[in-house]
Predict the structure.
Amino acid sequence: MSKSNGPRTEVLFKLFIYVALITLAIFIIVPVGWVFLASIKENAEFYGSPWAMPVGFHFENFIEAFNEAQMGEYLLNSIVVTVFALLILLVVALPAAYVLSRFKFRGNGFINSFVKAGLFINVSYIAVPIFLMLLDWNTVMNTIFGEGLLLNNRLVLAFIYAATALPFTIFLLSSYFETLPSDFEEAASIDGAGYYRTMFSVMLPMAIPSIVIVILFNFLLFWNEYILALTLMPGENQTLPVGLLNLMAAERSAVNYGPMYAGMVIVMLPTLILYIFVQKRLTQGMTVGGLKG
């Protein structure tokens, strides 16, 4: 009896998993597809059935979103901030994670604990203190140089993004570096390679799957971040999430829904394209990271 119930239970379990995954996929794909279809509809089509297919391809919504709503400028600002934030983050986090995970020195445990403590800090809790700090420094710079450069500055926002993402990134990379075998470092040392050569030529290429995960997660974090961008960019140089909220408020009040959904597509499209290109590496990084060499 137990033998006959075993395969039946396994089949039911697999069926439950498939049904759950298909249901989850439907709940994700349908809203995304609906937004894409809504972005090419004329405004009159929104007064009929919301599930009706577009009559034609009304690409003027994207032109209006780029020109009149300045989504092109917001897109450029988001690209600049995200790219600089990722570069700063990788330059700082990669050597720090490598040293903390592969070397033992006085204070190593304290620094690791300090980094892990940063995982519990929510960015929304420190947005106002960061703004007040930069505002005070801006006042000092105004008295000395006659101009403050810390607010409405894309590079400053990129530095803050990188700083807030450091604890998670160092923790993730350190966990991956700890799984790598020490044989390669010993072989590089025998060949005469120093610490820097070993890190850049041996260890970092082996950690590429983990680095891809870090880039993807932090790209999504920086690209969709709203609170710091709204707080530290009160004037020009606003990023896409802030611009999208402004666009939604303007178009909703004007009862003009096409450009609003076109703006949503502009925000979503880069993340979808990036995920399609790095999907294989992302899966590889998630599976390899837990294996000991």
Remarks:
- Residues 289-293 have pLDDT under 50 and may be disordered.
- The first helix runs from residue 2 to 38.
- The chain has one domain: 62-288.
- The CA atoms of residues 172 and 266 lie 30 Å apart.
